[in-house]
Design goal:
Helix content is 40%, strand content 16%. It has 307 residues and is α/β, with parallel strands linked by helices. The strands form 2 sheets. The chain has a 7-stranded mixed beta sheet with strand order 1-2-3-4-5-6-7, with no helix packed on it. The chain has a 5-stranded mixed beta sheet with strand order 8-9-10-11-12, with helices on one face. Helix 7 runs antiparallel to helix 8 (223-248) and helix 8 (223-248) packs across helix 9 (255-268).
Length: 307
């Protein structure tokens, strides 16, 4: 599915697994002098993405901008680059080796994600001559910021009034009623101070971009609100998880801990409360990723207690 908003196109990269819709976005900007993608999605949806680009009449890509190189964001970068030989791929420099030789990224993803990594598919290697530093974007009117809260190599991009924030401010997806839903996207190695600093960098953008393009999933019309809520949500979730650990004696994730956390956060966090308003398959998918978020926070708290 492709949703068109002026010169901006949301391409929904649907996968076969239950709930994997309205989840992974590839953003296409198509202007008179510049055409680029932000994130390509996983290798398993490369053909779908290329078909969508053909339907839109895209004959040339100037850039493929990667917010980060996790499989669900950059797994198809090599495939798309093969189809558009003129395109150059932009990413944080330390991420580039994983695009050129993706075997370590693939093996690590298999260990962490298991069957989900197999579903995403193995990335194709990329010619190192195709990769550019984000600094090269300035000549075409784009800004970028290193925002390592979600991943050490995470980059956010600004063009015109749109901030492509990847997972810096968490994720969202449509609810049955249209009420906004937002949750943090904290990785297994999560550092609260780094995540908050990344959001503060985005808040300091001048001029501030009006719209926020999520990697997962959709476009928000009020960037300032998204960043403000993202900051508040991160701190409140860590506090809630800390309190729950103290009350229950839990120090690690378990199904019971997650159920208690979802119940508490649904009461305390008005932006997470619409979890109950998600369609059933989207709820099931979200539970899978809420586990990642909670495990990241539990790891942060464990390191905090040892400091």
């Amino acid at each position: 599915m492709t949703i068109v908003m002026d010169d901006l196109h949301l391409i929904d990269l649907v996968q076969e697994k239950r709930g994997y819709r309205r989840f992974i976005t590839s953003w296409l900007h198509r202007g008179p002098d510049l055409t680029y993608l932000v994130d390509t999605g996983p290798a398993c949806t490369a053909d779908d993405l290329l078909r969508a680009l053909r339907r839109l009449g895209v004959a040339r890509l100037d850039w493929i901008l990667l917010t980060h190189v996790h499989l669900d964001h950059a797994g198809a970068a090599g495939h798309v680059a093969d189809a558009f030989p003129e395109a150059r791929v932009v990413c944080w420099p330390k991420a580039a080796p994983h695009l050129v030789e993706p075997s370590r990224l693939w093996e690590g993803s298999l260990q962490v994600l298991g069957d989900t990594a197999r579903m995403f598919g193995e990335p194709a290697p990329l010619d190192p001559g195709r990769i550019l530093h984000p600094d090269r974007l300035a000549s075409r009117g784009l800004r970028w910021l290193h925002t390592p809260g979600h991943a050490p190599h995470h980059v956010s991009y600004v063009h015109g009034d749109v901030l492509y924030g990847g997972e810096a401010a968490g994720m969202t997806c449509p609810t049955r009623s249209g009420v906004p839903y937002l949750r943090p996207a904290t990785p297994p190695r999560f550092y609260l101070d780094v995540a908050l600093d990344s959001l503060a960098k985005l808040q300091a953008l001048d001029p501030p971009p009006a719209r926020f393009a999520f990697a997962h999933y959709g476009l928000a019309e009020d960037t300032a609100s998204i960043l403000r809520h993202g900051l508040a949500q991160l701190t409140s979730w860590v506090a809630s998880v800390r309190d729950l650990c103290v009350e229950t004696g839990a120090g690690a994730w378990s199904p019971e801990f997650q159920a208690q956390a979802i119940a508490r956060l649904s009461q305390n966090d008005p932006l997470f409360a619409p979890f109950a308003d998600l369609e059933d398959d989207l709820q099931d998918r979200e539970r899978e990723y809420i586990r990642n978020t909670l495990e990241g926070m539990l790891g942060h708290l464990a390191r905090e207690s040892q400091a």
